[in-house]
Amino acid sequence: MAEEKKVYTRTKGIIEGAVSGFCPGCMHSTIHKIIGEAAEELGQLDNLVRVEGVGCCGLGQFYVTCDETIAAHGRAGAVATGIKRSSPNSLVYTYQGDGDLAAIGLAETLSAANRGENFTVIFVNNGIYGMTGGQMAPTTLVGMKSTTTPGGRDPQEHGYPMHMSEIINQLTAPYYIERVSCDTPQNVIKARNAIKKAFKYQLEGKGYSIVEIVTSCPTNWGLDPLKSLDFLREKMFAEYPLGVFRDGGEKKQ
Amino acid sequence: MAERVFMKGTEAIAEAAVRAGCRFFAGYPITPQNEIPEYMARRLPEVGGSFVQGESEVASVNMLYGAASTGIRAMSSSSSCGISLYSEGVSYCASARIPMVYVNVQRGGPGIGAIQPAQQDYLQATKASGNGGFRMIVLAPDSVQECVDMVYEAYDLAERDQNPVLVLTDGVMGTMMEPVVLPPMKTDEELAACRAKFADRAIVGHPLGQQAYCRPGSVGDGQEKVNIEAAAMYETWDKDIRVEEYMMDDAEIVFAAYGISARISRAVIRQLRAEGIKAGMIRPITLSPFPYDSFRNLDFDRVKGIIDVEMSIPAQMRWDVDYAVQGRCPVHEVLRSGGQLLTNDQVLKGAKEFIKEVL
Fewest beta carbons less than 10 Å away: which of A2, A61, A66, B114? Predict the structure, then answer.
């Protein structure tokens, strides 16, 4: 009888048998999976602390196996600062959406990045408020309809999309900044590698790392999952190009 | 190991916290409490702690929430309009049952108010320090020594109840210097023992299957259960009520005052006693839980009136005094606010006018 070798299994970072509760076509569940895989591959599941933002991110609280603090809306950067400085050996990450990180939490986000706090930010950017039903986010594309921009985002009235990775890249302290997506198997692998790299840097004490994941929101974009992938690639990637903005571990000469 | 030193209130508060085991402090500059973060910035690194100057009060209180959720002793401090911004974090700590300790060195209000001392945050401190109707123990020192003792003890109360504790002082106490006996430095072993009690709740990473949560909210009937448990905990606080009854054995005129107003009233009472007027004082030391029984059980055949002395206009503690007295004797007010200090002369004059009416 041929020897069977297990090549893939569900990560222990997700509660056995738990159902995520995210909408069909949403990438949050994939992101939870790859965070679990990255931490598991680093042998850190017992040492992992998640600081959860408010919004669809909050649905993850009944889904992951690690220690977890729910931050007030936007405050994950501050809460993670308190946790990491009080428990420096824990592997700490925040999990935040665009409303949480770029609107209500802008001060906490930029200040933690500017201090070079030694934790990791997983920033899920889908250009809209999901949990509250599709309002405009700082990252909403120009012309994109939302419940609070029924005629589409008008730069004259609402300004332009905010590019958080680029903004954070203006600061000196952050060590690692990368923007990825999860629209294809290849990109999922890239995203997992980026998260794993960010975690590794944190464990080495290198300082602040952020992985921005550009995703879709079929429910609030009003598109079916496949059409939202088209929109993601055509429109979102044009506004939010994927790539490494800074990698302190690969400094150019 | 007691050590008697001459210290400013704010710095004494900071040193007391360090001696109680505080190893994390986050705060934002605001007068008149700046010496607390400044002292912590110097002192915490000496004991292996961490100081962060937050980007705002909102960030600072949420850093405190995070730090305290890991089980270490942490602190933050601010003043009045800054404390308004703490509402979010305090409410989160109350809901998630995180033992946070913080200090309000009160200044004039409302709004940005004035940087000088006041007592204008009484109702906020005792009734609604954030959304959701939670309660917390509020300690009101009337000397630098009490500031020290209360901050030192606040951690034990906060950890016992897994609930926020506020030390409510004011700009007078914060900026004046007095001799104080500093408590002993808690040893690493003592602190480790405190931490061990809550190790299963500490948000630091746990083996699979032993996940620790810090949840300031819940779905289904979870939040109501949390609220029912918290309400049952508040019901145990009768034993924690602290009150000073000063010259009350034969008092016909009763001053009601806390903090700096109580100190001024005490001096006035001595002057009145020298003139043959039987005056005394009920000084709530815990503003929450409030010593209602001290007022409720007064001998109203003997007591002719109560003088409520506060650095707040309109009066705030008077709500609690009235609630206990229920109109059984007249209540007179002597007040200043907006950073204007009460003087002995003003309190004496106000008291004498009232005494002329009721005696």
Answer: A2
Chain B contact for A178, CB < 8 A? no
- Which CATH number is B243-358's, of 1.10.10.10, 3.90.550.10, 3.40.630.10, 3.40.50.920? 3.40.50.920
Q: Which CATH architecture has domain A28-247?
A: 3-Layer(aba) Sandwich (3.40)
DSSP A153: -
What residues of A are in contact with residue B26 (Cβ under 8 Å)?
Answer: 78, 81-82
From A12, A67, A75, residue closest to B205, measured CB to CB = A67
Using the beta-carbon criterion (under 8 Å), do A85 and B208 form an inter-chain contact?
A: no
Query: A-chain residues within 8 Å CB-CB of B202?
Result: 87
Asked if the Cβ–Cβ distance from A78 to B66 is below 8 Å, we say yes
CA distance B186 to B190: 6
For B319-345, what is each residue's pLDDT tens digit? 999 999 999 999 999 999 999 999 999
Provide the ipTM.
0.96
Fold of B3-239: Rossmann fold (3.40.50)
Query: Treating both helix axes as pointing N-terminal to C-terminal, what angle do A185-203 and A28-41 enclose, rounded to 10 degrees?
Result: 50
CA distance B45 to chain A (A): 12
Nearest CA among B76, B81, B146 for reference residue B287: B146
Distance between CA A58 and CA A29 in Å, rounded? 12
